[in-house]
Amino acid sequence: MSYQQVEFCIRACIDCAVACEQCGEACLAEPDVGMMVDCIRLARDCATLCWNAADFLSRNSPFAAELCRVCADLCEACAAECEKHEPEHCQQCAEECRRCAEECRRLAGVAVA
To answer: Can you give the pLDDT of all 113 residues of the chain as single tens digits?
Structure first.
């Protein structure tokens, strides 16, 4: 994998982590926070895994590709949940999650759907 591929994936993971952190916090302020529970949980999980993936990639860990495969799956799940909700922060989170999933799959050598 090229240095540029790794850099793109690191950037996508960081951008996704930030969007997920912001989405999770914003969901807590929504009028019906009970409807947002799954979104909040997935956003928090996704942010944590994205931060870790960026860390593994930056250290050239031999487990980075494997972690990226899992990260892509979690990003897809988070995007699917966020897309169910109207708030802009959820839509932005979904967009970043989809981009991150694509970059992680590309880096891990998994076909992009």
So the answer is: 677 889 999 999 999 999 999 999 999 999 999 999 999 999 999 999 999 999 999 999 999 999 999 999 999 999 999 999 999 999 999 999 999 999 999 998 864 54
pTM of the model: 0.93
Check which CATH number belongs to the domain holding 47 and give it: 1.20.1270.360
Question: Count of domains in the chain?
Answer: 1
Give domain status of residue 113, yes or no.
no
Q: CA–CA distance from 53 to each of 23, 37, 49, 59 (Å)?
A: 19, 24, 6, 10
